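It would be a great kindness if you could assist me with a short task in structural biology. The matter concerns a single protein, recorded as an amino acid sequence and a row of backbone structure tokens. The record follows directly beneath this note:
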Amino acid sequence: MKRLFLLLFILLFTSLTAFACNCKEEQSAKDFVNANDYGVLTTNCGEINSQNLQALLDSLSNEGGRVYIPAGKYEFASNGSQTIGNHCIKMPSNVSIFGDKDKTVLMPAGESIYGLDMFYFNDYLDINTPNYLENCTFENFVIDGANTSLVTYTSAGKGFMFNLFKNCHWKNVTVKNTDATGFGVDCPIDSTITNCVAINCGKAGVNNSSGASGFGIGFGYANAESITISNCIAQNNKKFGFFFEHQGRFNGKKYSATQGYDFKVLNCEASNNLYNFGGIFTTNTLYENCSSQNSFEYGFYFENSANSIAKNCSSTGDKVACFAITQTNTHKVNDISFENCVGNDSPCGVKIVAEGGAVVNNNCVKNCVFTNLSNYAVITEGSMQSLSLIGNSSNVSFNLFNAEIVYFENLQNSWN
């Protein structure tokens, strides 16, 4: 009798477990929709895929939803115009997209006048309404812009072109071969980019083009903007690997915020970009534990910037200098620091140039080590209010101090 009760108990427990598992699988299946079921297919032309994916995303936006794009190569084409350029998809809020890692490839294709963005959102520019894109995630897929081209470069033609967004997150996404910046996302709040890659982006630009980078983050609309980029890679992009810039340099009326920024780039790698890491008119930017190799000019470069730091970073094989600060015209450059960094196998360790008439103040190079330099450990040019070089070492004994510096700290350094 006891054996019979035991057998019945086992059968009942097994049935209940199977029922629970089936319910769980059924619930999981309802957590996303398959884009193939809604006409996004590897056999479709780009126009049809763009229209079908746009319709699917729009239908999910109100309630929220996740869209799964299975393995395969999917062509997309222009499905809408914007103030400058065209886009395949205008991204709605509350929707997420994920794929099968590098087996899911989204391929924008076609020639446009000013550039074709894969995913786009910019109501602030298009209709002069500062709407935010909110609550989106992008995970486990590739955007390949190898089949796009343009007539006139304008900085359009990105993998992602968003302006004003909150709580948006990227993970395990690769963007490559775009005409402009790969991840060109401006004015973020509480957002992250993790384990992502940008390769050969900015292919239609030149060295002095705006954008044309791997990861380019604009800011300056609100005082609470923040984003963290971690464990990402940027290789062979036309201009920067990673950079931040205040959009007020293009439109001071629309982008007038001046404080409260929190930008972090952590444990990232960059190589073979014009500048691997840096910023133009950036502020409150931290690069920490980042590795730079073989930049075509500078490994870490801050231009007309303030309150920013590269900490525990390394740069090797740069064509001009491992670390650099420049100032032009009437733009202040204050509180830029390189701390506990390593630079080697380059002509110069640090280059600091002040060419304008504004104050250049409180910039610092501290506890850095430079080896195998072919020219100088430190070069300074122009006119500065203050500069501190503290606790640094180099295996070259030459520095080129050409700058006029009112308060110059050159302490505890070992220039051998």
